[in-house]
Design a protein that fits this description.
Blueprint lengths: L5 H23 L8 H23 L5 H36 L7 H23 L14 H27 L10 H20 L17 E2 L9 E2 L2 H8 L11
Helix pairs in contact: 1-2, 1-6, 2-3, 2-5, 4-5
InterPro entries: CYB561D1/2 (IPR045150), Cyt_b561/ferric_Rdtase_TM (IPR006593)
Subcellular location: Membrane
Membrane topology: Multi-pass membrane protein
Length: 252
């Protein structure tokens, strides 16, 4: 039922992504300052582009066949664009520290950022395996296909959530105190996160965790003691989980 609210929720979430990402970029960017490329590119990559990619992923769950495949491709292209900005942000802070002779990954912000990158890499790998057109999914047993796709969704959500924490920690860093306005930025970010979380609550997943939902081809228990296990079909899965049917795996 919750996902039926998506058409009402996604425009506001999308607007929050554009406002948050572009505002961070406009505030911090100074072409001649290599450090400024870090918050600028990270803000655009995570808050603007990745948010758009996640919203596209939510939207294509209602599509089927060729439309779904094309929507998945678009989702992948958007997330690759996010990756480009994130890599630019990473290399800018790396070069900045190298030039100043400072050690890497020492602050809490940097450690959370590194964890975000590691989880994001796993999400990228799971996404590449999940897309049938790449032919990688066939290397795994069919009973694992649904779980691999679910892991991609879970890791993607974790990446985006960790990025919010990393950005919040970064805004509390002395380097972000531009003109003595660091505390104002932190307060504005708190308001942005609160509004974003409130908006996305309406688009939350079904009651059962999505990584535990049975997928087509999964083995379920027999109807009576001693019966052979039954293969769960897509129809049975849809009937059992109602709105969770949007998680069917066709075309992905």
């Amino acid at each position: 039922m919750a996902l039926q609210l998506t058409p009402l929720v996604t425009p506001s979430c999308r607007a929050l992504g554009y406002v948050g990402g572009l505002t961070l970029a406009a505030w911090f960017f100074a072409p001649s300052n290599i450090f400024s490329w870090h918050p600028t590119c990270m803000g655009i990559g995570f808050i603007l582009v990745m948010t758009e990619g996640i919203l596209r992923a939510i939207e294509f769950r209602f599509l089927e066949k060729a439309d779904r495949v094309q929507a998945i491709r678009t989702h992948g292209y958007i997330q690759l664009l996010a990756l480009i900005f994130i890599l630019l942000g990473f290399f800018s802070i790396y070069l900045n520290k190298e030039r100043q002779g400072k050690p890497h990954v020492t602050s809490t912000h940097a450690k959370v950022g590194a964890a975000t990158g590691a989880v994001g890499l796993l999400a990228l790998m799971a996404g590449a395996v999940s897309f049938r057109s790449f032919g990688l999914l066939s290397a795994f047993p069919e009973r694992m296909h649904g779980r691999i796709k679910a892991s991609h969704r879970m890791l993607g959500a974790a990446t985006w959530t960790l990025s919010l924490a990393a950005i919040e920690l970064g805004l509390q860093h002395p380097a972000a105190d531009k003109g003595g306005s660091g505390s104002s930025w932190w307060a504005a970010w708190q308001a942005w996160c609160s509004c974003g979380c409130h908006r996305t609550q309406a688009a939350r997943m079904p009651a059962a965790p999505f990584w535990r939902l049975p997928h087509e081809g999964d083995i379920g228990p027999g109807s009576r003691p001693g019966d052979a296990p039954k293969v769960i079909s897509s129809e049975a899965r849809s009937a059992r989980h109602g709105s969770a049917a949007v998680f069917r795996e066709g075309g992905g």
